[in-house]
Structure formats: structure tokens, C-alpha cells
Specification:
globular, mainly alpha, 0% strand, disordered N terminus
Length: 396
């Protein structure tokens, strides 16, 4: 049996390829991203500015996902090149952080990272959407569970390097991980088993153009629910670490331990959730995930007991995994005849939702405190879940 770079040829499927690539990229990114809000706070930025930083990154990602789609459809660029190019952009970001000095340069690198993420995620989602699957929800659950694996080790390694040396060495180590990711993506591509000859992002022929999915009312409703789910993700990515530090007074080492332990437990939970999402419709997964996330966000806002927050955090992450899997599964099924458009829409909704969530939460936290941001998040998720359920019944 022929050997590839890491695995046997027969083992390489589109979902495995995407999940392993996702893991490698996030492993490099998570080595420093966990400490990013703390780093910005140490630089003297207030909470509104911290939220704006994340908004700039994800807004750039949303914008460039459209640009990537235009380039793909007009120039017939393959995901084969979009994916490693995006990975190299992540590597360039690490290099940029080594030499960035001025605020303007720092902002430009955030935009560069948004472009790199757009290339990577549009390419990866297209790889998953283009292969025939019985359950896209289950496929995307494996794809979205990759951060749990990287969270278990990467922040700890990054924290040790940061403790022993400085941020410079952390970025250099992440650069090495990105190099491995690029080599993996390029070497393994030819061994992916797909139903088509190649997983390229090109326009479909006129014979299938009449099958383009229309934006019906029900689909629009659930796309709105998907946006709110990513809005909530923006709140957590920007401010949960600061909540642990400022409200529960955890040190950096305790926060690293928190992330590592919860990620390990989340890995085990994700294995169980695979059967759950596979048996249910994407719409139901999305609504169930949002509903549980709503309750948990309210719990985060009102919790003052650390062990209870630990349990709430695990339930919240599980719920978000279900809702994100439902989001991508719904889009993959809706755009099954136009995978490139589905991949772009998925990336656009994810990035824009996180950008808006980070920005709004930043201003709420700045004026009313971090807990108020999570309170706002819980209310928004709850109202959206109720409205989607009511309108969906009427549409049916």
C-alpha cells in the first residue's frame, strides 16, 4: 500500500484531509491566539478597542471570502491552490508579528490574516461539500471539532514558550507548524478520494444551472439563525478569557489549564455528538444548539461560582458545535449543486457573524461590563430561536 506524507493512501478522505489541515492550521494559531486579548489589554487597549480588533479580522475575512469566490469563478482557481496559499498567509502573519511596530502595521496584518483565512476556509469547506455524503452535519462536526484537539495542546505549549522566553519565540514556533501544514496540504491533495476527478471550484455547466437553489423564506430564516450563532461565537472568542481573568481572577497558567482540560473533555463529547447530529435535520441541530447556547450564555452572565462555570462552559461549547455543524450542513445541502457558492456563503456568514458579535460585545462590555455582553448574547440567541421556531412552523 502506497504511503503518503503522513497516512496510508486508502485512509485519506475529503473530510479527513480537511479536518487534519484544520487541526494543523489552528494548532499554529492557537499557540498565541488564546493570549491575544490579554496581550491587547496589556498594551492599554480598552474593551471596545479589543472588540474592534476582532471585528477587523473577521470583517476582512467576510469581505475577502466574496473576493475569493469572484476569483475562483472567473479565473477557475482550484481549492488545491487556495488552501496552501491561505496556510502560507497564516505563516506570513506570524512573521509579520515578529517585526510589526506601529499600530497601522498591526491593523494591516489583521487584514492580511482575514484574507488568508478566507482562502483557507472557502477551500476547505468546498472540499467537504463537493464529496457525496449521507450526513453533512456529521462531516462538519468532525471538521469543527479540530479546534478541540488543537486547544488541548497548543495553548499549553505556547504558554510554556511564552513563560520561558517571549512572544517572539511563540510566533517562530507557530511558523514551523504552518510550514508542516503547507507540506501536508500539498503532498496529500493527490491522494484524496473524491467522487469527481478533482475538487476544483469552478462554475457548473448550463445543464445544471437551472438547479440553483432559490432563497426561500424558510432557508432565509435559518440562515439568520446561523448568523446569530456566529454572533455568539464572536462574543466568546473576544471576551471569555477576559471574563476568567477579570471576574474570576484566574492567572495565565490557570487559564491555560482551563482551556486544555475543557478541550480534552470536549473531544470526548464530540465523539458522542456525531451520532446525535447525524440522526437529525440540519435545521433542528441549528435550533437546538442555539437554544441551549442561549440558556448557557445567561448562565455565564449570572454565574459567580467557578466549578459551575466550568460545567456551563462545556455545555455551551457542545451546543455551539451542534449549531455550527447544523449551519454548515444546511448550507451544504441547500447548495449541493453549487458547492463553491455554498462554501463562500458559509465562510461569509461565519466571519461576518463573529465580526459583528465582537464589535457589539466590545461596546456593551466597555459601557456595562463583560457580564452584560454575555447577557446580551443569551437574549439575542433566545429571541432568535423562538422567532425561527414560530416562523418555521407557519412556513411549513
Amino acid at each position: 500500500m502506497k504511503r503518503t506524507f503522513l497516512l496510508h493512501t486508502s485512509e485519506m478522505t475529503p473530510v479527513l484531509y480537511a479536518s487534519l489541515s484544520h487541526f494543523l492550521v489552528l494548532f499554529g494559531y492557537k499557540m498565541f491566539s488564546l493570549y491575544y486579548p490579554l496581550f491587547l489589554e496589556q498594551k492599554g487597549f480598552d474593551l471596545a478597542v479589543i472588540g474592534s480588533m476582532y471585528m477587523l479580522l473577521y470583517a476582512s475575512m467576510a469581505f475577502f471570502s466574496i473576493v475569493v469566490w469572484i476569483l475562483i469563478t472567473r479565473e477557475r482557481v482550484s481549492a488545491r491552490y487556495a488552501i496552501p496559499t491561505g496556510m502560507m498567509g497564516y505563516a506570513a502573519y506570524s512573521i509579520g508579528m515578529l517585526f510589526a511596530r506601529s499600530v497601522t502595521t498591526f491593523y494591516l496584518w489583521q487584514v492580511e490574516l482575514g484574507l488568508s483565512a478566507a482562502l483557507f476556509y472557502v477551500g476547505m469547506r468546498s472540499v467537504i461539500m463537493e464529496h457525496k455524503s449521507k450526513s453533512y452535519d456529521k462531516d462538519f462536526l468532525y471538521f469543527y471539532s479540530a479546534p478541540f484537539y488543537s486547544n488541548f495542546l497548543a495553548p499549553t505549549i505556547g504558554g510554556v514558550i511564552l513563560w520561558a522566553f517571549s512572544f517572539r519565540e511563540v510566533f517562530m514556533t507557530s511558523l514551523l507548524v504552518y510550514f508542516i501544514a503547507v507540506v501536508f496540504a500539498v503532498r496529500e491533495w493527490e491522494f484524496i478520494k473524491t467522487d469527481a476527478d478533482s475538487a476544483t471550484l469552478t462554475k457548473k455547466s448550463k445543464a445544471t444551472s437551472h438547479k440553483k437553489t432559490r432563497y426561500e423564506m424558510k432557508i432565509a430564516i435559518f440562515l439568520a439563525a446561523a448568523f446569530i450563532a456566529m454572533f455568539s461565537a464572536g462574543v466568546y472568542r473576544s471576551f471569555f478569557v477576559l471574563l476568567l481573568k477579570n471576574e474570576f481572577y484566574l492567572s495565565k497558567s490557570w487559564i491555560v489549564g482551563w482551556i486544555s482540560i475543557t478541550s480534552l473533555i470536549s473531544i470526548i463529547i464530540s465523539w458522542k455528538l456525531a451520532k446525535f447530529v447525524e440522526k437529525r435535520k440540519s435545521e433542528n441541530n441549528l435550533l437546538v444548539g442555539n437554544s441551549i447556547s442561549s440558556i448557557m450564555a445567561l448562565g455565564v452572565a449570572t454565574c459567580f461560582y467557578l466549578p459551575l462555570l466550568f460545567i456551563i462552559y462545556l455545555i455551551e461549547y457542545s451546543a455551539k458545535l451542534v449549531s455550527e455543524s447544523g449551519k454548515s450542513g444546511l448550507i451544504a445541502r441547500t447548495f449541493r449543486h453549487n458547492e463553491e457558492e455554498g462554501a463562500v456563503l458559509d465562510t461569509f456568514i461565519t466571519a461576518l457573524g463573529v465580526a459583528v458579535g465582537s464589535l457589539v460585545a466590545g461596546f456593551v462590555a466597555h459601557n456595562h461590563g463583560i457580564r452584560a455582553a454575555f447577557l446580551m448574547d443569551g437574549i439575542a440567541l433566545g429571541l432568535c430561536a423562538i422567532l425561527c421556531a414560530l416562523i418555521s412552523r407557519r412556513v411549513n
